[in-house]
Specification:
Structural class: alpha+beta
CATH class of the largest domain: Alpha Beta
Helix content: 25-40%
Distance between the termini: 60 Å
Number of domains: 3
Number of strands: 29
Number of helices: 13
Radius of gyration: 25 Å
Shape: globular
Largest sheet: 8 strands, antiparallel
Length: 513
């Protein structure tokens, strides 16, 4: 396996559009997806060779861009260190968390059990000895009037937002192939082709980049330390199909996939997030089918049934796992995390912070502030409802089908009426929950949760404001500082939780009958 490093420098703001579920806002990826690089180079190859609509009949084009003989990785942010060397960052593994009340201290959850509150570390990072150094991609929000498709003029009062990657940032990725000749040939073709456009709105102010081949071709080598247990970390989104041919983020399906390709292991721990992929293919003028995927940063602690097959691990680290690997999906690394990561600090404290501070000073129209505030609130309410549903499902599993024997639906209805009447978190706990009779308290203590019982769960529950990925919006409205809205989230969580807990109790009762 051979690789060819490439570099992309943003000469203008970049908008690599992704689905956010937020109205009036178009968000961007924080990296350059392999799909975008593949499409960009394929388009230039078609133009240079005048292939037009018959490109697929060209043997080289077919092999490189359709058959998958070339694999295009994602390009992630890079920054210079004190020796003027490029440091390449990767998505931060979800198992590495920062201690909430002890700034700069981290814990690696694959190898440790937390005893203090933790918070997520966002952005990209690099591990140096026992220190995790993090950085973020500088982004901005640009405000535009919606245009009338017929007249081309702006629609009065209708504003939408484009989130974009700021210019002058540098990203690096690689093109890999089993055949060295493929990389030598593509390096020749694009050696003097530096000016490209990528992403959305390329006809306006976005998308100009400088593309360059920056490293010599070399044979890929991997060094994986042989351990009794080893981490598996996804460096890009990973698409796995289950036995029915559907994309999934089910742990069982992942284990079955790994077994099928020769890796017999148990998944001891998992920290993952799921996402959805939907790409637009301009030559088709159609979208590719939507796929469910493991999000980059998802990670797992693997324990072999016998001993680790090091040859297989090296093969998978070189070739990746899952579907659509030629487009940048399926990049993995083994043994990245160890149990000695103890601190986290910014790689370059000044660069990204300045941009955020300047954004906060920027004056934006009042109507835009209202749109942003509404979007953030809607997102927070959606995610808190989903969290409540997830917690109910966990409680169902912990009580092994005996939920209706441990707590009565009538008690849950009372709790639901309590939260409707409460005017604060402390009022709900102190003036309602603590005033329950002993028999009701016993029911709550009898009902199992993930870590304790339902009484402890309700009395200690804190609502975390989950942020959308386009963090730039939060420069204009910070829901965690809005106490009134925080209580709205608290109330919404428990209203959703109790309503669905009643349904779960009813379902448990019907199964027994």
């Amino acid at each position: 396996m051979y690789k060819l490093k490439y570099q992309i420098k943003a000469k203008a703001p970049l908008l690599i559009a992704k689905s956010s579920g937020e109205r009036n806002t178009v968000t961007t990826y924080e990296y350059i997806p392999g799909t975008s690089v593949l499409g960009m180079l394929a388009g230039r190859y078609i133009a240079k060779n005048k292939l037009n609509s018959k490109a697929h009949e060209n043997d080289i084009f077919f092999d490189w861009f359709l058959k998958g003989k070339l694999r295009f990785s994602n390009a992630y942010i890079t920054q210079k260190n004190e020796y003027n060397e490029d440091i390449e960052f990767i998505p931060i593994p979800f198992s590495i968390k920062e201690k909430k009340n002890k700034q700069s201290e981290t814990i690696e959850l694959l190898y440790s059990t937390p005893v203090v509150p933790l918070k997520m570390i966002r952005g990209f990072g690099v591990i140096e000895s026992t220190t995790f150094k993090k950085t973020s991609v500088s982004k901005s929000i640009n405000f535009h009037h919606e245009r009338d498709k017929d007249t081309g003029s702006s629609k009065k009062g209708i504003i939408f937002n484009y989130e974009s990657i700021d210019k002058d940032q540098v990203f690096k990725g690689e093109i890999s192939s089993d055949e060295k000749g493929n990389l030598e040939e593509i390096a020749k073709i694009f050696l003097n082709e530096s000016n490209f456009y990528i992403g959305r709105s390329r006809n306006s102010q976005y998308g100009e980049i400088e593309f360059s081949i920056c490293d010599i071709i070399e044979e890929l080598k991997t060094n994986i330390e042989d351990r009794a247990e080893i981490s598996l970390t996804f460096l890009s989104d990973v698409i796995i199909y289950n036995k029915n041919g559907f994309s999934t983020t089910d742990i069982k399906s992942l284990r079955e996939y790994l077994e099928e390709i020769g890796l017999n292991i148990k998944i001891e721990k998992a920290y993952l997030k799921k996402d959805f992929i939907e790409n637009y293919v301009s030559v088709w003028r159609l979208k590719k089918p939507s796929e469910t995927c493991f999000k980059a940063g998802s990670c797992f602690l693997l324990k072999p049934d016998n001993e680790l097959n090091m040859h297989k691990l090296q093969e998978l680290q070189l070739n990746g796992i899952g579907e659509r690997r030629a487009e940048g999906f399926g990049q993995v690394i083994f043994g990245l995390q160890k149990n000695d990561i103890s601190t986290v600090k910014p790689f370059s404290p000044s660069e990204t912070k300045i941009s955020e501070q300047e954004l906060k000073k920027e004056v934006i129209p009042e109507i835009t502030q209202k749109i942003i505030k509404k979007s953030i609130r809607e997102y927070s309410l959606r995610t808190i409802k989903l969290k409540a549903l997830e917690d109910v499902r966990t409680i169902e599993g912990k009580n092994n089908g005996k939920l209706n024997q441990r707590i009565k639906g009538s008690l849950v209805s009372r709790l639901e009426s309590f939260i409707k009447s409460a005017n604060s978190e402390s009022n709900f706990r102190e003036n309602y929950i603590k005033e329950l009779k002993d028999i009701a308290m016993e029911q709550l203590k009898e009902c199992k949760t993930d870590k304790s019982n339902l009484w402890d769960f309700i009395m200690s529950k804190e609502i975390e404001v989950l942020k959308a990925e386009n963090e730039t919006l939060y420069n204009y409205y910070e829901p965690e500082n809005d106490n009134e809205f925080k209580f709205t989230l608290y109330k919404t969580y428990f209203l959703t939780f109790f309503a669905n807990l009643r349904k779960a109790i009813k379902k448990s009762k019907q199964k027994i009958n």
